[in-house]
Design a protein that fits this description.
With 535 residues, the protein is mostly helical. It has 23 helices and no strands.
Length: 535
């Protein structure tokens, strides 16, 4: 084998994998919210989970990415092992789409497809058309890479060493399984391994009998990505990775035991060896799912024994909804960011209540709770911002990009609400330390203002969580009332101060309390405006 052949093969493989990724990114951006909703409506129904897994993988063009994403969900506690098993099984069906596309043999018109995709990407000003252009461009690059691999492998059939290797693999199918396993574990893409097999088949360099064991082995090899992704995760996430391995290993064993039968069945579907390889890939995964879907409970029991015990309870300083593995699917990650930001917002709202209870009741326990919660809020601010920086560099649709840009400001506003809650806690401490007494009217007024501000905050957070325009409008309307209320209460306080109903010692504390509450209203208004602007 000369260097030219090796370089052409590697170049073709690189284009093939890049085209697949480009097509997947374009499909993901075009699908956008639909992809997010597919996973959000996931239930414990195993059949529905399989459909979701297959659909997501067909969109993102990578079963490994779907499995890694699933491990991320399990790690974040958003998906249980029963759901994860269904999604992982479905992902194996979804990944067969790539092989079926390759079998259509569009290599002759690939340059034309490439030209159309390039024109859409380069000359279209509309983001949606640009995303479609990216899909078409990726599709074209995939087939150009396939064409290069076919050309590079054409001389292989004439080499004595390659003929001898094929003879050995033909006599020892289990060696073929090992070859497929090692190839896929190295390349980290089962679709790329199948692409190489189909390129060899196009030149009649490999028979179906030799290709099938390699094909079965690559299903085990693709588990390497998930196993690597589970390092450093929770025990449940590790169990999800082992479900993937057991599922594919069991399927390979079943199909190798029925190897002669499979060799007879696959040609019945018709087509040349390339199409037969694609059909065998689909048959393997669909049959494997059909056999094992009834034993998800058993799979879960097995992995619970393989990875025994429970995780230690973690501190509050964790991200509940975000996982770096979810960055592989940006459209899903955007939805998870909103959930984590909402969690941060609810914690800030809760801290506002704690600080006011501390102030009104001189409650030291609440004062300490405010300080502890503020540590968590600051942690979430740093970590969510860091996550969004990473996410903003991923392929996002225009709408998703706008949402992330807006959320940078929202996180800042929520963090500032937390700061004002902490300020109120400090004012509560000052009131307790200096034994400051306020008139009944002052306490009544500030309680009413707090309840109004809390209503404003909660509506803003609800608007963010559910994209609820009505709640956003309520928050914006109430915020105007808060501004008027602050001016009115400050004026009345000065009057009481002049008539000696209140002491000068508590005046600065009271006025600062009103100012902090009014500013909380301002930040809530900013969040509500972002929700309205994003819809």
């Amino acid at each position: 084998m000369d260097y030219k052949m090796i370089f052409q093969l590697l170049g073709g493989l690189g284009l093939f994998v890049y085209g697949m990724k480009l097509m997947g990114d374009g499909l993901q951006k075009a699908a956008g919210e639909k992809l997010k909703r597919m996973l959000e409506i996931l239930t414990s129904n195993r059949f529905f989970a399989v459909i979701v897994g297959a659909g997501v993988t067909a969109i993102i063009q990578s079963s490994s990415a779907t499995t890694v994403m699933t491990i991320g969900f399990v790690n974040a506690g958003l998906m249980n092992l029963f759901q994860a098993a269904g999604v992982i099984m479905g992902a194996n069906i979804g990944t067969t789409m790539t092989a079926q596309l390759i079998a259509f043999k569009l290599t002759d018109i690939a340059p034309f497809i490439l030209a159309i995709g390039a024109a859409l990407v380069l000359f279209s000003k509309k983001k949606k058309t640009n995303d479609i252009g990216e899909i078409v461009l990726g599709f074209g690059i995939l087939f150009v890479g396939m064409s290069m691999m076919e050309t590079a492998m054409k001389p292989l059939g004439e080499l004595d060493s390659f003929k001898n290797l094929i003879l050995v693999l033909g006599k020892h199918p289990f060696m073929g399984v090992l070859v497929g396993l090692c190839m896929t574990a190295t390349i980290q893409s089962s679709s790329a391994t199948i692409g190489i097999l189909m390129a060899l088949a196009s030149n009649s360099s490999i028979s179906l009998a030799v290709a099938l064991p390699i094909l079965f082995g690559d299903n085990i090899g693709t588990c390497a990505t998930a196993l690597l992704a589970s390092i450093g995760t929770t025990k449940n996430a590790k169990r999800a990775a082992f479900i993937h391995l057991i599922f594919n290993f069991t399927g390979t064993v079943i199909f190798m035991l029925a190897f002669k039968l499979v060799l007879k069945i696959v040609p019945m579907f018709g087509g040349d060896v390339q199409r037969q390889i694609a059909n065998a890939h689909t048959l393997f995964n669909v049959t494997n799912v059909f056999i094992q879907i009834w034993f998800i409970g058993t799979l879960v029991k097995i992995v619970n024994k393989l990875v025994p015990g429970e995780d230690e309870k973690s501190s509050a300083l964790v991200l509940e909804y975000l996982d770096r593995r979810l960055l592989e699917t940006p459209s899903i990650a955007v939805g998870q960011v909103i959930k984590e930001v909402t969690r941060m917002g609810k914690l800030s709202s809760q801290n506002l209540s704690n600080s006011m209870q501390a102030f009104l009741n001189s409650d030291e326990d609440k004062m300490n709770l405010v300080i502890n919660n503020e540590v968590t809020i600051n942690y979430l601010n740093r970590e969510i911002t860091s996550y969004m920086v990473s996410l903003s560099s991923m392929p996002l649709s225009e709408r998703q990009s706008d949402i992330i840009t807006s959320l940078f400001n929202v996180v800042n506003d929520i963090e500032r609400i937390g700061d004002h809650a902490e300020n109120l806690g400090e004012l509560a401490r000052s009131r307790l330390d200096h034994k400051i007494v306020f008139s009944e009217k002052a306490i009544s007024d500030v309680t009413y203002m707090f309840e109004t501000v809390k209503y404003c905050v909660d509506n803003a957070i609800t608007a963010l969580e559910n994209s609820d325009l009505e709640s956003a409008r309520k928050a914006m309307k109430v915020e105007k009332e808060i501004d008027k209320m602050e001016r009115k209460l400050k004026k009345e306080h000065i009057t009481r101060l002049s008539s000696h109903e209140c002491t000068p010692k508590g005046s600065s504390v009271y006025l600062e309390l009103l100012t902090n509450l009014e500013r909380v209203g301002d930040h809530s208004n900013n969040i509500a405006q972002m929700v309205i602007g994003s819809n």
